[in-house]
Amino acid sequence: MEVTKQSIIGDVLDYEPETAQFFFAIGMHCLGCPASRGESIEDACAVHGTDADELIREINQFLASKK
User: Fold this and answer.
1) Of 21, 45, 49, 58, which has the most beta carbons under 10 Å away?
2) Is residue 2 assigned to a domain?
3) 4-33 per-position pLDDT tens digit
């Protein structure tokens, strides 16, 4: 899976639940909420005032290391 700004948080978590740690690290503690699971990474980062590009980079590096 290649994560992008348009990736839906729930899809990323379903693909690899361990990615939750990256969302928690930037203050996204509402991952169980149906609304947050349906948000794009870009939208969630905008709401939380965080850098979507950095989050995506970290998640993609993590996913690549799991192969």
Assistant:
1) 45
2) no
3) 999 999 999 999 999 999 999 988 877 777
**Range of the structural domain that residue 57 is part of:** 9-65
pTM of the predicted structure, to 2 decimals:
0.90
> CA of 24: how far to CAs of 38, 39, 56, 67, in Å?
16, 15, 14, 23
| Separation CA 42–CA 6 (nearest Å) | 6
**Cα(3)–Cα(60) distance, integer angstroms:** 6
* Number of domains within the chain: 1
Amino acid at 64: A
| Inter-CA distances, 49 with 13, 18, 22, Å | 21, 22, 15
Query: Which residue in 16, 17, 25 sits closest to 51, CA to CA?
Result: 25
> Six-digit token pair at 50?
């965080």
